[in-house]
Design goal:
Layout: H1 3-31, H2 37-61, H3 67-83
Helix pairs in contact: 1-2, 1-3
C-alpha cells in the first residue's frame, strides 16, 4: 500500500467518520437545548475540519501530494488521535 493509499484510507474510513459522528453528537446536544456557546463554536470548528479533510482527500485523489507530505499528514493524524 502506498502512502497515498494509506492516507486516503485513513481519511475516508477513520477521520471523516469520527468527525461526522462527533458533529452528529453536537447537533443532538443543540437539538436537546443543552448547548452553550462553546458547543456551537465546537460545531463550527468540526465542520471546518471536515471541509479541510475533504479538500485534502480531493488533493490526494488528484495526485497532488507526494510521499513526504502524505507521511507528515499521517503522523499528524496519529498524534491528534493519541491526544483524544
Amino acid at each position: 500500500m502506498t502512502l497515498q493509499e494509506e492516507l486516503e484510507d485513513l481519511i475516508k474510513n477513520d477521520v471523516l467518520l469520527e468527525i461526522e459522528d462527533y458533529i452528529d453528537e453536537l447537533f443532538e446536544i443543540i437539538a436537546a437545548k443543552k448547548d452553550n456557546e462553546r458547543t456551537k463554536e465546537e460545531l463550527k470548528e468540526m465542520q471546518d475540519m471536515k471541509r479541510d479533510f475533504e479538500e485534502m482527500l480531493q488533493d490526494l485523489l488528484n495526485g497532488e501530494m507526494d510521499d513526504e507530505e502524505c507521511k507528515d499528514i499521517i503522523d499528524e493524524i496519529n498524534e491528534m488521535r493519541k491526544e483524544d
